[in-house]
Amino acid sequence: MKILNQLIWPKGFQSDAIKADLRSNSEKADLGWIVSDVLADAAAVFTLNQFPAAPVQLTKSTITQDQKLQALVVNSSNANSFTGMQGLKNAELEQQLVADKLALSPKVIAVSSTGIIGKQLPMDKITAGIAKLQKSQNSEIAQAIMTTDTVSKTISLDFDGMIMSGIAKGSGMIHPNMGTMLSFITTDAKIDGQLLQKLLRQLTDITFNQITIDGDTSTNDMLIVMANGQAGQEEILADSPAYETFKAALHKVMQTLAIKIAKDGEGASKLVTANVCGSQNDLAARMIAKTIVGSNLVKAAAFGEDPNWGRVIDAIGNAGVDLAAKDIQLAINHVLIISQGELLEMNSDALEQAVKSDQVTFDVSVGSGAGQGQAWGADLTYEYVKINAMYRT
Amino acid sequence: MKILNQLIWPKGFQSDAIKADLRSNSEKADLGWIVSDVLADAAAVFTLNQFPAAPVQLTKSTITQDQKLQALVVNSSNANSFTGMQGLKNAELEQQLVADKLALSPKVIAVSSTGIIGKQLPMDKITAGIAKLQKSQNSEIAQAIMTTDTVSKTISLDFDGMIMSGIAKGSGMIHPNMGTMLSFITTDAKIDGQLLQKLLRQLTDITFNQITIDGDTSTNDMLIVMANGQAGQEEILADSPAYETFKAALHKVMQTLAIKIAKDGEGASKLVTANVCGSQNDLAARMIAKTIVGSNLVKAAAFGEDPNWGRVIDAIGNAGVDLAAKDIQLAINHVLIISQGELLEMNSDALEQAVKSDQVTFDVSVGSGAGQGQAWGADLTYEYVKINAMYRT
């Protein structure tokens, strides 16, 4: 398994992105697509928000029919969320426009949107934009899906003669079940859609669902994987060695994109990582890790380079997991500061130095159990407040 | 029921606060007590953090024995939290010192602390401080318990010939189950401790547990009510008219203190209130209300006076309650902006003006159910980040 230096589309995939003038005062692309030469097996996970946006409702019903897709279209700047029946009609029209252009059934087209809530999609611009989309090898779609993201997020892997590539966006509203997060992963491996769906859920729990920026979950989150089999390798079957390699590749792609999203959290100046072990089970460790990186107090202390371990302890105690203080061990940026529930005063000076870094990592042991888990987030900065106090106007 | 202009201690209660030099570079009092002339019936609720501080552990075991207290001692600047066996011994010594001075059993003395986590209490200063405490009628204890609070929080009520008075502190780490919140309520009414405990739990759910500043829950939270019966009125029995009046008085005291805490949240410039109705039950309404006021995105938008109703809708959808978009009605500062799940564009200009206020109130209806609930919080400001990036150092 090798990480490639740039985004390479797997065999039989094309992409494009153009400026459909959805963004005001911007020269950035805002509409794009990914197209497979042949029907691909597909899997997806969606937001758990009670008010899923129109494209989420539509794509969910599209993909769950037979776990197949051949293309996806995505726009930024407008989320087509909380737009009622008209919003759903607009999403369906967008799906039909792409289907017509590609001479495919609308039932194999995914539709995705991100941006502001509560405005109808400008269908004249969407229609004109789709007319301009080409099948190319460019990677501009990674830029087209950005909102308050400061960098585009991509990864390509080479494994067993196959390619897997992923792009993602998302920098605010990231929390349980993938707040305002879009990610599209393509591979030329051959794998059954049902098997892919099962694997995707499993890996989502330990990657995208373990990042948090501000605790909110958007109405538009969507993660889609398409596998078109065009590398010509044998089909990947459950519990085979090839499956383990495929799983490792997908895990790597998803974890890399998730960490890139956390690191580029709105206003973030530091990546905050929590590694937890010693719990009764993995779920407990993940809950603790996520509570740490989700704590505003921990996040603000990370920004201030304040070695305030008390807040980490406080967060651990708030995770909803039964724990005993005497079992707790905590290291911050590899400096052990709590052992067997006792403060190691002698390490305080070393800790003061260690937190002056662009990464803050908490290594926590909570007992002798076999459970482990990780979570990733960002610090809480003045810039975060600025971005979010002034987003709409 | 009449709200008095200043803090008046109920009959048979005394209080005092002094400077025990626990705070560095401060002239503020940092140690205080409240003493009843006679043994009082008492009730309390405590933090649900997995690592309760030593004073929480001690006071919980003290009060649950027989629901009686005669005095409480409290210090700021040091939380005596995550301090192991030594911390527990120090809390017990503090309890004994107060008991000796008052010639009482330690079993009727509550001990409470707030401040930094992980440092042992300076027992020389605590000992010297307790020696200085007097029985007086001053209200300086309300200042002595302040940490990052900017104003002291007190209320006194006159009802049916009795007095009820409360003080509180807490401006950060306020969330479910009373993050870093201390409140002490005294009354000269006569009511059985078990009955008082039941009522206290019920009212905590709709007052202190419905405020949130930053989603964390401290290791030290404690709310104590003492009723010493010294007004000479008849004992308040369950389900009597007098009980309803007492309940209304305690609700008023608790809600007033809770809102004062929310309004004085760290760095807060605005009080944010959510009123939710129409849910299946009260719990669902409270969950929705608390999710709204707890959302960093809603809080930042409130700070920026940005009428970003999409974030409120997003928060409502994230509360873990089953809802349908078409049932949602939302007014912001009394301007209706969503009705039957549809945006009322015509009110957008009015909304822009309405959010320019030092209060932001969201009135939400989610259906035709009888459930209702409220929650209170503060906006998310640059000052919040500043305070929390630099608290310890």
From TrEMBL, chains A, B:
SUPFAM superfamilies: DmpA/ArgJ-like. InterPro entries: Arg_biosynth_ArgJ, ArgJ-like_dom_sf, ArgJ_beta_C. The active site is at 180 (nucleophile). It comes from Oenococcus sicerae. HAMAP family: ArgJ (MF_01106). This is Arginine biosynthesis bifunctional protein ArgJ. Belongs to the ArgJ family. NCBIfam families: ArgJ, PRK05388.1. Its EC number is 2.3.1.35, 2.3.1.1. It is an enzyme of class 2 (transferase). The record marks 114-115 as: Involved in the stabilization of negative charge on the oxyanion by the formation of the oxyanion hole. Catalyzes two activities which are involved in the cyclic version of arginine biosynthesis: the synthesis of N-acetylglutamate from glutamate and acetyl-CoA as the acetyl donor, and of ornithine by transacetylation between N(2)-acetylornithine and glutamate. Pathway: Amino-acid biosynthesis; L-arginine biosynthesis; L-ornithine and N-acetyl-L-glutamate from L-glutamate and N(2)-acetyl-L-ornithine (cyclic): step 1/1; Amino-acid biosynthesis; L-arginine biosynthesis; N(2)-acetyl-L-ornithine from L-glutamate: step 1/4. Keywords: Acyltransferase, Amino-acid biosynthesis, Arginine biosynthesis, Autocatalytic cleavage, Cytoplasm, Multifunctional enzyme, Transferase. It is found in: Cytoplasm. It comes from the Bacteria. Heterotetramer of two alpha and two beta chains.
